[in-house]
């Protein structure tokens, strides 16, 4: 079961409508044509989506190309995890800074009215 969310499609070679149709087909997790490759872009922490490569109908991928796409998808997922962790650390730093500033202001307040 897939959670309903906004679909973000990054592609090359399709118009927006066709890219959306292909993305929905890829996310459906059904069988894909032989001239398509799909790799999961996910880590133990997050599932970022799918990476897809396509040839023209009738062409086939070599096994090494499947391995290469899988490796690329794992690298992409690791990079996204790193960026996500950095953003989370920045958010936590900002929260801690805000709480520290609040604590300083409360400590310097002289009356209950100033605290309120």
Describe this structure in words.
By secondary structure, the chain is α+β, with helices and mostly antiparallel strands. The protein has one domain. The chain contains 3 helices and 2 strands, in the order H-E-E-H-H. The protein has helices at 16-27, 63-108, 112-115, and strands spanning 36-42, 47-54. It has a two-stranded antiparallel sheet. Strand 1 (36-42) and strand 2 form a beta hairpin. The longest helix is centred in the C-terminal third of the chain and has 46 residues, at 63-108. The protein starts with 15 loop residues before the first helix and ends with a helix.
Strand content bin: 5-15%
Determine the fraction of residues in helical runs and give it as a percent range.
Answer: 40-55%
Q: Spell the H/E element sequence.
A: HEEHH
Low-confidence stretches: none
Task: Give the overall shape, derived from the CA principal axes.
Answer: elongated
Number of strands: 2
Report how far apart the termini are.
48 Å
Number of helices: 3
Assembly of the depicted chains: single chain
> What's the domain count?
1
Radius of gyration: 23 Å
Largest sheet: 2 strands, antiparallel
Please state the average pLDDT score. Answer: 88
Category by helix and strand content: alpha+beta
């Amino acid at each position: 079961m897939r959670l309903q969310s906004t679909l973000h499609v990054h592609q090359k070679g399709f118009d927006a409508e066709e890219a959306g149709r292909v993305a929905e087909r890829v996310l459906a997790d059904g069988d894909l044509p032989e001239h398509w490759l799909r790799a999961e872009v996910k880590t133990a922490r997050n599932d970022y989506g799918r990476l897809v490569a396509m040839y023209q109908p009738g062409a086939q991928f070599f096994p090494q190309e499947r391995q290469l796409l899988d490796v690329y998808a794992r690298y992409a997922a690791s990079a996204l995890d790193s960026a996500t962790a950095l953003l989370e650390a920045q958010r936590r730093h900002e929260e801690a800074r805000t709480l520290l500033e609040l604590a300083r202001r409360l400590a310097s307040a002289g009356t209950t009215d100033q605290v309120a």
